[in-house]
Amino acid sequence: MRKLLVGSGALLTLALLGCSDINRSATPVELLMTVTAQPIQRFDIAPGAGGCSQNVATVQIQSRVLNSTVTNTSLLDVRITRYRVTYTRTDGGHQVPAPFDRSIDFLIAAGSSTSDILFHLADFGDAFNQAPFAALLPQNGGRDPETGLKVVKMNINLQIFGETLAGDRVTASTVIPLDVCFDCGGCQP
Fold first, then answer.
1. Which domains can be identified in the chain, with CATH numbers?
2. What are the residues whose beta carbons fall under 8 Å from the beta carbon of 2, sequence distance 6 or more?
3. What does the pLDDT look like over 31-48, one tens digit per residue?
4. Fewer Cβ in 10 A, N or C end of the chain?
5. Cβ of 20: how many Cβ atoms within 10 Å?
6. Which residues contact 175 (CB under 8 A, 6 or more apart)?
């Protein structure tokens, strides 16, 4: 009888673990995010620098259906609800602007692509007024204190979050490389 109780307890534990969110099967939709254009690859933070009114990047999001046996594909449409921006340095420095999240709301039909989504400098708020960029200003020494360079080289890490209409969470990410400098000839490709 004791073996039966131990065996039943083990089966119950396995059944409960199998029903958790952690062990749910993967969503039948995959999102892919691609940078399709990047008009600014070098951003000049000097006031009035030329060419800086363009978009930083244009991205496209594609919804790929992974399970072709789904009969009602409209439940695989994805509602994108927010994006997150984080930064990583590529020049050996460690100081980066604070990450941020923003709410957005649009729908991507299953198996389709979005039209281009534009990210303008205004979308990044006051990130370019924060450290480490403030050190590039002449009154602050004009150089990054970590690297000694007049340019901060970094990646903008862009991640989107959404959910299928059936309730499955989906995400995608991409990287936008960007160099930031002061009075270096304006914003350039």
1. 25-181 (2.60.40.1940)
2. none
3. 999 999 999 999 999 999
4. N
5. 8
6. 35, 155, 156, 157, 158
